[in-house]
Specification:
This protein is of the alpha+beta class. About 40% of the residues lie in helices and about 20% in strands. β6 and β7 form a beta hairpin.
């Protein structure tokens, strides 16, 4: 004779899973364990979803640098297209307060400025100049108005106008400076065109 009471069939799907979980959580320590596992699962899922961004943070990036092999040609081209009498390109290390001469071109003469390495501040640029260049802005002035060794030398050899452009011409990164100098200050349209060429060159000589 069969019994009048029969066990209900086992539940399937989410309902069955929920019943098994609730049945397992009949004691407090088991409930705590379930909560901890859920939290760990949530953290793992979030980390997986953010894997691309996390790998981006860990990715080794190649730092920007001056294209040393292209500087001679760049300076020669600037001497032609800007009508400048002097073109010099210096590398800059703000952290070490150092500026090193890499290329110098002088029209109808030879660049004879002795030091090839100078402090950036005081001996080459003022603090306000450094801030402007570091923000990606060029500087143009009469070298005689500035007291650094480099500006004094430009004035001594007869230069009456100079423009300094940061390399690259972008904020928060200063790897080098290009200086153009003229014996006769160029007319504003010519200076504007020269500055445009100087900034384009300052961008082109930096690898990213």
């Amino acid at each position: 004779m069969s019994s009048s009471h029969e066990d209900p069939p086992p539940s399937h799907g989410l309902t069955g899973l929920a019943e098994r979980v609730l049945g397992y959580m009949d004691r407090p320590w088991r409930a705590v364990a379930i909560v901890v596992l859920l939290i760990l699962f949530g953290l793992g899922f979030a980390a997986w979803e953010e894997r691309v961004r996390l790998f981006g943070f860990l990715e080794v990036r190649h730092p920007a640098a001056l294209k040393l092999g292209e500087l001679q040609a760049a300076a020669s081209n600037l001497l032609i297209v800007t009508t400048a009498d002097v073109v010099t390109i210096w590398s800059v290390d703000i952290g070490a307060n150092s500026q090193e001469l890499l290329v110098a071109k002088q029209r109808n003469g030879r660049w004879d400025f002795g030091p090839t390495q100078l402090p950036v501040a005081t001996e080459t640029l003022s603090s306000s100049d450094i801030v402007k260049l570091f923000r990606g802005h060029p500087i143009c002035d009469d070298p005689a108005n500035r007291g650094s060794l480099l500006m004094k030398h430009l004035a001594t050899i007869g230069m009456h106008r100079m423009c300094a452009a940061p390399a690259p011409p972008a904020p928060d990164l200063l790897l080098g400076v290009i200086y153009l100098a003229w014996r006769t200050p160029p007319d504003p349209p010519i200076e504007e065109a020269a500055l445009h060429a100087e900034l384009a060159t300052a961008s082109a000589i930096v690898s990213r």
